[in-house]
Amino acid sequence: MDEIVADVVKQWFHKAENDLRNIRNNLSAEEVPTDTVCFHAQQAIEKLLKGVLVANGMDVGKTHDLVKLLTDTARFIPELLPFEDEFEEISEYGVGVRYPGVISEPTFEDAAKAFEIARKVNEIIRNKVSL
Questions:
Q1: Is 72 helix (H, G, I), strand (E, B) or coil?
Q2: Contact of 87 with 45, CB cutoff 8 Å
Q3: Helices 66-73, 84-91: crossing angle, 10 deg rounding
Q4: Which of 12, 54, 40, 37 is nearest to 107 (CA)?
Q5: Sequence-distant contacts of 1-4: CB under 8 A, at least 24 apart
Q6: By Cβ atoms counted within 10 A, which residue in 26, 33, 36, 40 is the most buried?
Q7: Mind listing the pLDDT tens digit for each residue in 21-72?
């Protein structure tokens, strides 16, 4: 991977880390905004997957669909395939959770689960992509 590509990948991963930091901060709040936690979990996973695509010379496109991104990245990191069902669920948090009446308010358990998946995906990807 050349230096320019590595820099772009680092930027994707930095943005994902900011989403994870937002989640950690929100989960420690007295009143946890579960919709915000779930949104940032979706965003972190999306940015991590897009970083993998960039690292492998692929186009990231404009999708928020984690399952599509998983399909595109699985050949590079097949360890992510077991997350397909969770990614389908978490994808809904990318758009629907931001607006009233689109999906129901996530529970604290939903938020904690989304964070745990995002944390695991981060760990897998960061261990596989050398910068």
A1: helix
A2: yes
A3: 140
A4: 37
A5: 1/55, 1/130, 1/131
A6: 40
A7: 999 999 999 999 999 999 999 999 999 999 999 999 999 988 999 999 999 9
Q: What are phi and psi of 18, to 5 degrees?
A: -65, -40
Question: CA–CA distance from 61 to each of 32, 47, 83 (Å)?
Answer: 32, 12, 21
pTM for the predicted model, two decimal places: 0.95
Confirm if 51 and 125 have CB atoms less than 8 A apart. yes
Residue 68 corresponds to which tokens in the numbers above?
């599509």
Distance between CA atoms of residues 116 and 32, nearest Å: 16
Q: Which residues have a Cβ under 8 Å from the Cβ of 5 and sit 6 or more positions away?
A: 54, 55, 57
| Dihedral angle of Cα 27, 64, 69, 61, to the nearest 10 degrees | -140
CA distance 54 to 1: 10
Amino acid at site 27: L
List of residues 6+ apart from 85 with CB closer than 8 A: none
Domain ranges of the chain: 3-128
What is the 8-class DSSP label of residue 106? P
Domain 3-128 fold: Four Helix Bundle (Hemerythrin (Met), subunit A) (1.20.120)
